[in-house]
Design goal:
With 508 residues, the protein is α+β, with helices and mostly antiparallel strands. The strands form two sheets. It has a six-stranded mixed sheet with strand order 1-6-7-4-3-2, sandwiched between helices. Strands 5-9-8 form a three-stranded mixed sheet, with helices on one face. 46% of the residues are buried. Pfam families: PK_Tyr_Ser-Thr, TPR_BSK1_C. InterPro entries: BSK, Kinase-like_dom_sf, Prot_kinase_dom, Ser-Thr/Tyr_kinase_cat_dom, TPR-like_helical_dom_sf, TPR_BSK1_C.
Length: 508
């Protein structure tokens, strides 16, 4: 963390209103032309880059008509859904995707399915395999996500061919998945359905990521566990509902998998832990190459997660706090520990000429961005607010005074104070200013809080959907989150909007 602590984010536009706006844009986007960063009218312009309503024909072509040869996961013997890999045929870069197939019986109402998918798609994080689209054509219910090319944790732990996962990478898997769960929880979606070793994927760099599919209920009635009942949270057996504490229990079973290299029922493992037979539980394929002290900490954490009483289990922040200090090879890339070649990707070429703002954002030059935002002041806010006479109250004057103080602090590079003052302005909610969101977004970036910066930049886009600055700020935040492909696409969208405006017409 940098100099700033999280402050109240003051979301002016309600989540419900934003959801309807995004869903409207996604559903009115022509399915045969997925949003790929070239079309400012696409669903990507709704604040969810790449959230696309795919046509069934697109997904059939991508998966060779859902060929069995393209199945990458069936998520357990009783699972009613299957995951396929595929490659989009109608995009220049022939992007690889993962497609999860549900039954219509699980989601009879297509709007309900689309609403649920939309909620999941709002979550964007480097620890997640992010959702990019869906399909509700006819009886089909399909989700589309980023494809992770280096298999699942279950295969690396239980069915490995070349080498087992070394201890340092197991600790990294545990931390990264804890961070993913903590991010989802902080964003108001703490429920993850049927968390297990099949839900943990490895990306092109060998980094572990949590599948976004588990954030979506398996059916509208919330029936979520398809694995053996021996691994199911006890309260789920009683109520049939997933709770945040249920997710922690399932995380405990993943910790046991990482420690033992086997899928051991929690009750059996807890008996061995209580009997101090920890070393008997450790994966023999590690051949002793692990720290007993670190293993003991992980076993203790697993034991806490697997407590019968939900209230006795830790929360996601506790998981991160316990696992973060154990990381013992922070400078060794995951692909090295996984034994795969390094992924090389040429930097994308900008598709449109960049303005000074675009150039500064492409270089991630926060100082230059600050200078441009100071010079631009509030000229881009014109027309975004129409206030009635009754709204010019003392509260309004106080709010404008808070913004003025924020502007002074922003100009003087006192970014902590600027965040506090801009938050006071936003929290009142009477006046909506995209510029304030953009400025606070930059403040968060300068204070090493890219998640908060991305959220503010997306809110600026909600208020002013065709504002290139909102896209540029998202590009910088995404780059700071190491989501470079998304950042490059967002940069191109911003440049396209600027170019269109210069030609004399605002995108609509």
């Amino acid at each position: 963390m940098g100099c700033c602590q999280s402050s109240c984010l003051g979301v002016v536009i309600s989540q419900e209103k934003a959801s309807k706006n995004y869903l409207h844009q996604a559903q009115n986007h022509h399915p045969s032309h997925p949003a790929n960063g070239n079309d400012p009218h696409s669903a990507a312009s709704g604040g969810l880059r790449g959230f696309i309503e795919f046509s069934l024909a697109d997904l059939k072509a991508a998966t060779n008509n859902f060929s069995p040869e393209f199945i990458v996961s069936e998520s357990g013997e009783k699972a009613p859904n299957i995951v396929y890999k595929g490659r989009l045929q109608n995009q220049d870069n022939r992007t690889w995707i993962a497609v999860k197939k549900f039954t219509k019986l699980a989601w009879p109402d297509p709007k309900q399915f689309a609403d649920e998918a939309l909620g999941v798609a709002k979550l964007k994080h480097k620890r997640l395999a992010n959702l990019i689209g869906y399909c509700c054509e006819g009886d089909e219910r399909l989700l589309v996500a980023e494809y992770m090319p280096n298999d699942i944790l279950a295969k690396h732990l239980f069915h490995w061919e070349n080498q087992t996962i070394e201890w340092a990478l197991r600790l990294r898997v545990a931390l990264y998945i804890a961070e993913a769960l903590d991010y989802c929880s902080s964003e108001g979606r703490p429920l993850y359905h049927d968390l297990n070793a099949y839900r943990v994927l490895f990306d092109e760099n060998g980094d572990p990521r949590l599948s976004c599919f588990g954030l979506m209920k398996n059916s509208r009635d919330g029936k979520s566990y398809s694995t053996n009942l021996a691994y199911t949270p006890p309260e789920y057996l009683q109520t049939g509902r997933v709770t945040p504490e249920s997710v922690i229990f399932s995380f405990g079973t993943v910790l046991l998998d990482l420690l033992s290299g086997k899928h051991i029922p929690p009750s059996h493992a807890l008996d061995m832990i209580r009997g101090k037979n920890i070393l008997l539980l450790m994966d023999s394929h590690l051949e002793g190459h692990f720290s007993t002290e670190e293993a003991t900490v992980v076993f203790d954490l697993a034991s806490e997660c697997l407590q019968y009483e939900p209230r006795e289990r830790p929360n996601t922040k506790d998981l991160v706090a316990t696992l973060a200090p154990l990381q013992n090879k922070p400078d060794v890339p995951s692909y090295v520990m996984l034994g795969i070649p390094k992924h090389e990707e040429a930097p994308p070429t900008p598709q449109h000429p960049l303005s000074p703002m675009g150039d500064a954002c492409s270089r991630m030059d926060l100082t230059a961005i600050h200078q441009i935002l100071v010079m631009t002041h509030y000229k881009d806010d014109e027309g975004t607010n129409e206030l009635s006479f009754q709204e010019w109250t003392q509260q309004m004057r106080d709010m404008l005074e808070a913004r003025k103080r924020g502007d002074v602090a922003f100009r003087d590079k006192d970014f902590r104070t600027a965040i506090e003052c801009y938050s006071q302005f936003i929290d009142v909610g009477t006046m909506i200013s995209p510029t304030v969101y953009a400025r606070r977004s930059l403040c968060y970036l300068l204070c090493d809080q890219p998640d908060a910066a991305l959220r503010d930049a997306m809110q600026a886009q909600c208020v002013y959907p065709d504002w290139s600055t909102a896209f540029y700020m998202q590009a910088v935040a995404l780059a700071k989150l190491d989501m470079h492909k998304d950042a490059a696409d967002m940069l191109n969208e911003a440049a396209a909007l600027e170019e269109k405006k210069q030609r004399g017409g605002r995108a609509s």
